[in-house]
Amino acid sequence: MIRFQIKQRPLLTHPEQFQGVPTFIAEILARRGVNSSDELDLKLKHLLAPQLKDLDKAIQLIDQAIDQHQKIVIVGDYDADGATSTALMILVLRDMGAKVEYLVPDRFKYGYGLTPAIAELADHTFQPDLLITVDNGISSHAGVERCHELGMQVIITDHHLTTKATPQAEAVVNPNQLGCEFPSKALAGVGVAFYLLANLATYRSKLNKSSSKISQYLDLVALGTYADVASLDYNNRILVDAGLKRIQQQQCRLGILALLEIAKRDAASLKAQDLGFVLGPRINAAGRMDSMNIGIECLLADDYAKAYQIAVQLNQLNVERRQVETSMKQQALSYLEQLQLETESIPSALVLFEQSWHQGVIGIVAGRLKEQFHRPSIVFAPDEDGQHIKGSARSIDGIHIRDAIERVAERHPELISHFGGHAAAAGLTLHKDHFQAFKQHFTDLLADMDQELFQATLWTDGHLPHHAFDLETLSQIEQLGPWGHKFPLPQFEGEFQVLDYRWLKDCHLKLKLALEDGATVDATAFNAKDKFKFDPMKERVRLVYELERNQFNGSVSLQLRIIYLEQ
């Protein structure tokens, strides 16, 4: 069990500038770098202007393709961002009268991005005139070249980072490419697709051509942005807020409503976090366990019975994914137990491989190990060819995992076949004979890093004043959302006297706590058995917690959701 260092988030702007709100609310905003009250106004008219490199070129090409009845194919990616981007492209371009199909590579067969093999598959299946990538393509030099040889024009829309020159496509729209002036680098793949399509729609409307009302698809933009864990800067918060409101009002894709019904969630009270924890995993399960086509078809369905039928399938895949993940994690933990990991002696990286593990789930398992032990983790599973293994890496703050893998590759070029990724997550392929050598070199590299990095820190918004423990405070916090990556939901810290406790289902801990003014509040720690050491003989606890509603028998009260507990 990791012992966290609890620190308060630093103030990034001046809380005094936020008038008419309690001091602690002003501090919450200042700790997230909000520059003024204007940034709390999430109307669509405040979206950043479309200063994206090659945007006009891409619009001209698609406009021409629609008018000339050319065949367009969308090449997507196999996660929720890829699925929502693909669905958005298909729906909007069909509204405009385009002849458009889509293709999502099988991740286990083709790997990632627009490869020459995908270009050939697109040509063989659809004979397209124009190929548009969504959420991929920025590194696909050879794939673009092959498309040209086969007589296709190519537009790349992507958001991934690159340090290299862009592929020689007819147009490349990506805020993170070299030379792009767009102020926000946090757009997800679906955000980039939205900007392209919104501006194409405006362009065609002005010319009195068939167009599309693109705001009706903001539910897809919100879902893809949130599920891809994009940073919620002001621009992304506007997009997520607008899409979330459409879902709450049930003005969204039928597939989303069907998934919510199966998950027993009420659309009207949906929170941004549910996009990441309820909808995202069910869409992602398609790409992890089977084919992302199922996820896309769910989002495209225009009949509820059909949408529901596909949503049932997605839910089932998600159940399977969870089972596989749980079994893999148990195996991983028992390996680590054999190493007799004490918190003090955890190696600087956890690198694991097992012949029976499933490629589609290694990323999630790596993420879970990273969270549990606060160490960069890489989990490998066998590749299709029987010779190689594929790894998925997840990292902690302060350690750039892609760069660390690159350093091993530079020192030992024979070990790694290929790799890619960014600071927090990466993927790599090695020959299975090289696993032990890679593990050794990678762990040694990280062991030389500053040991402070391996100290887990929990950042809080300080102490909540005792008069603020009420539902009014919770409503104020909710109204300031959407909360998410780089705009985190407020977490508070405090010491409390424990008046009573009980265990639920032998794993969840329920506490009754005394507040300073004599009132009491309930607090719940989910899965506390595995996470915290609780001694009922000690009458005080130190907590890090979030505020939430407890709805029971028709009455609503405030309760604390315990994030961390120590005594």
Describe this entry's structure for a reader.
The chain is of the alpha/beta class and 567 residues long. The chain folds into 3 domains: 49-316, inorganic pyrophosphatase (n-terminal core) (Alpha-Beta Complex); 339-454, Diaminopimelate Epimerase, Chain A, domain 1 (Roll); 461-566, OB fold (Dihydrolipoamide Acetyltransferase, E2P), CATH 2.40.50. It contains 18 helices and 17 strands. The strands form 4 sheets. The protein has a 5-stranded parallel β-sheet with strand order 3-2-4-5-6, sandwiched between helices. The chain has a 5-stranded mixed β-sheet with strand order 7-8-9-11-10, sandwiched between helices. It has a 5-stranded mixed beta barrel with strand order 13-14-15-17-16. It starts with a strand and ends with a strand. The model has no long low-confidence stretch (mean pLDDT 94).
